[in-house]
Write a structure and sequence with these properties.
The structure is a single chain. This protein is α/β, with parallel strands linked by helices and 722 residues long. Among the domains are: 136 residues, Immunoglobulin-like, CATH 2.60.40.10; 127 residues, Golgi alpha-mannosidase II (Immunoglobulin-like). Helix content is 18%, strand content 21%. It is built from 13 helices and 30 strands. The longest helix is centred in the last third of the chain and has 20 residues. The C terminus is likely disordered. Belongs to the glycosyl hydrolase 13 family. This is Glycogen debranching enzyme. One of its GO terms (biological process) is carbohydrate metabolic process. Keywords: Hydrolase, Transit peptide.
Length: 722
């Protein structure tokens, strides 16, 4: 009779039965009768596995890993009889500690396994912390027993996405959110009907990898509260969902709660993109804490100067050595894990230009990490989005090493759109280029509009409401002397700085927000809306709210009249985008290629048809196309001047022009359901700082020919030029 000897221990260490471990996979993994642990360090001269009681945190055992268990630079041990429910763990390494060796091993520290599937220590958001604990972050093993109940990703085509950038806690933490579990994954699930009503089909979540909200925390004498790491762009655990975002985090059930959120969103047809931070870690520079990478293999994981100091291309103290083979494998393994284990649909890479830097910090022409991620079979159907710049001055917009896979946050769309919105002269040509999918950036290599993530606001900067309410940042509440945050906001306050009871100014601000959202949603590319922009969310002019866990960052679910009006406009504009495939085409339109009725796919206009004035504050265009044998023809015009424009409309091919949106009109005439607006004559009055969207209807298409247009009074706008 043959016996399976690999299922049995070979020796005893510190009272526990063990055997040499399996070197792959790295991290913890359940094996028959026990748990396997594997960790890399090329510099450690010794390594011990440290076990703690999960309840109470007392030391359970420390197991020195024999040198005979080491294979190459990997230390691996299988421990038998361990119950995953009852222990947490870390590692203790000895080795060189001096700066000249660019290694900082310290046997006096217990290190977190960077591949821990879940981490305890910050289980409940904002709970009191034991600052005397020298090992606050402890990994534990997660059973892989979640039942996905047949979950399948929605699989939306990129050009059909409507992305909603959001913070898990901020979305439902406000006292008036009305959810049973505010600030959590479960609370987000409760608000899925809201997302469906709005019309988004993809959420982009600010960091949900484990981080410490108390990192760099300090009393704030201005607010009377505590500055916190609210945004979470400082990862401590790349394989672990943030426990503080789970209502069940104190029970160690954050993994299941996160999966339940993803499954519920998928069931509703909503994809999940994670904002991931591989450019730096929570360990910071030489003054920062030693948590994992620094004590494991400093030179492998971080970009170091020849003298052993940290390159800081991230602006956060350190930069990961992303194209080192060890780090490259780590990042790829992490992405695969979140796709396979958590069913996420894509990733947005923060400060992604760092991912293309070599070991000396210089940009690589063909970065191995990006090429590997782009070609990986597990990630084949995931959305990959790059923030194509970093804090070190590397700006790769339109030139990011995309390998045919990466889309980009389009910073030019944001900047040009904001300039036109505030009435900057000479921007018509630039905003026209953004409107048709930025061919100046994304025509090479056949990338097309789907490579452009169009946005006007994001978590970093002004909200849309603040963009039209403030000329300058107002970050005094951050207690940094208003020095933090960018100064190049390209905003305009419509005549008065900040909040005002002046209803003329407030009407103008509301119209400006509608203009911005309509431009965003009729532009080719993939639109991204910032959480709360659809309901006038303000941060009081603060453009860097990274440190506030207060109503400054939480979405206010009360609905004032203006909030209700903008919400209605936004969701109607989303429906218009989805009703017109010409906005979602995957190619840039061409003036030398005919669309339908024998006219070009794109024709630019000014006040007269076919005569654009690129030096003006007016952009107007006809877009045509034929999709599934059905013609789609639209006319869009945006007047950012403080004077009205009188437009002669081009001949409507094959029908009559009907109004679908006109931000110069009072609600509800500001926007209509697809095909439900009033007919437009040969000439069009375009109010100051307003936009209009027309479509061609024919006898087979329902339309409201008897509607009466109620314009806002253009003479009532008591505004100054920006």
């Amino acid at each position: 009779m043959n016996t399976r000897v690999d299922l049995y221990p070979t020796e005893e260490i510190a009272g526990w039965l063990t055997r040499p471990g399996r070197v792959l996979p790295y991290g913890p993994s359940l094996v028959p009768g026990g748990v396997n642990f594997s960790i890399f360090s090329s510099v450690a001269t010794s390594c011990s596995l440290v076990l703690f009681h999960r309840e109470g945190g007392a030391l359970l055992a420390e197991l020195p890993i024999p040198l005979s268990y080491r294979v190459g630079d990997v230390w691996a041990i299988t421990v038998f009889g361990l119950n995953p429910e009852t222990f947490t763990y870390g590692f203790r390494l000895d080795g060189p500690q001096h700066l000249a060796a660019t290694q900082r091993c310290d046997f006096g520290r217990i290190l977190l396994d960077p591949r821990s599937r879940a981490i305890t220590g910050r289980d409940v958001w904002g709970a009191p912390v034991d600052w005397t604990d020298k090992f606050p972050y402890r990994g534990f093993v997660v059973p892989e027993d979640y039942d996905w109940r047949g979950d399948r990703p929605p699989g939306h085509s990129p050009e059909d996405l409507i992305i909603y950038e959001m913070h898990v806690r901020g979305f439902t933490q406000h006292p008036n959110s009305g959810v049973a579990h505010p600030g959590t994954y479960a609370g987000l699930v409760e608000k899925i009907p809201y997302l469906l009503d709005l019309g988004v089909n993809c959420v982009e979540l600010l960091p949900v990898f484990e981080f410490d909200e108390y990192e760099l925390s300090r009393p704030n004498p201005i607010t009377g509260g505590l500055n916190m790491n609210y945004w979470g762009y400082s990862t401590s655990g790349f394989f672990a969902p943030k426990a503080g975002f789970a209502t069940s985090g104190a029970l160690g059930m954050q993994c299941d709660e996160f999966k339940e959120m993803v499954r519920a969103l998928h069931e509703a047809g909503i994809e999940v993109i994670l904002d991931v931070v591989f450019n730096h870690t929570c360990e910071g520079d030489h003054r920062g804490p030693t948590i994992h990478f620094r004590g494991l293999d400093d030179k492998a994981y971080y970009l170091l100067t020849p003298e052993g100091w940290y390159y800081n291309f991230s602006g956060c103290g350190n930069s990961m050595n992303c194209n080192h083979p060890i780090v490259r494998d780590f990042v790829l393994e992490c992405l695969r894990f979140w796709v396979a284990e958590y069913h996420v649909d894509g990733f947005r890479f923060d400060a992604a230009a760092i991912l293309g830097r070599g070991s000396d910090g210089s940009p690589l022409s063909n970065p191995p990490l990006l090429e590997t991620v782009a070609a990986d079979p597990v990630l084949k159907k995931t959305k990959l989005i790059a923030e194509a710049w970093d804090a070190g001055g590397l700006y790769l917009l339109g030139k990011f090493p995309n390998f045919g896979r990466f889309a980009e946050w389009n910073g030019r769309f944001r900047d040009d759109g904001r300039d036109f919105l505030r009435g900057q002269p000479g921007m018509a040509g630039a905003v026209a280029t953004r409107l048709v999918g930025s061919p100046d950036l994304y025509s090479a290599g056949g990338r097309g509009p789907r490579a452009s993530i169009n946005f006007l606001t994001c978590h970093d900067g002004f909200t849309l409401r603040d963009l039209v309410s403030y000329n300058s940042k107002h970050n005094e509440a951050n207690d940094e002397g208003n020095r933090d945050g960018i100064d190049d906001n390209r905003s305009w306050n419509c005549g008065i700085e900040g909040e005002t009871p002046d209803h003329f100014i407030n009407d103008l601000r509301l119209r400006q927000q509608k203009n911005a959202l309509l431009f965003l949603l009729v532009s080719r590319g993939i639109p991204m809306i910032l959480m709360g922009d659809e309901r006038c969310r303000t941060q009081g002019g603060n453009n860097n709210t990274y440190c506030h866990d207060t109503t400054l960052n939480w979405l206010d679910w009360s609905l004032t009249k203006s909030q209700q009006e903008l919400f209605r406009f936004t969701k109607m504009a989303i429906r218009l985008r989805l009703a017109h495939p010409v906005f979602r085409a995957s190619e840039h339109p061409r003036g030398d290629r005919h669309g339908t009725h024998g006219i070009p796919e794109v024709v630019w206009h000014g006040c007269l048809p076919g005569k654009p004035d690129w030096d003006s504050r007016l952009v107007a265009v006809t877009l045509t196309g034929c999709f599934d044998n059905q013609p789609d023809i639209v006319y869009f015009a945006w007047n950012s001047d403080h004077e009205p424009a009188f437009l002669s409309l081009p001949e409507p091919p094959g029908g009559t022009w009907f109004t679908e949106a006109n931000t110069g009109c009072l609600t509800p005439d500001d926007i209509h359901p697809p095909g439900g607006g009033p007919a437009m004559q040969e000439t069009c009055f375009l109010a100051p700082r307003s936009a209009i969207l027309l479509t061609v209807a024919n006898s087979n298409r329902p339309c409201n020919t008897g509607a009466v247009i109620r314009y806002s009074n253009p003479d009532a706008y008591r505004e100054s030029k920006p």
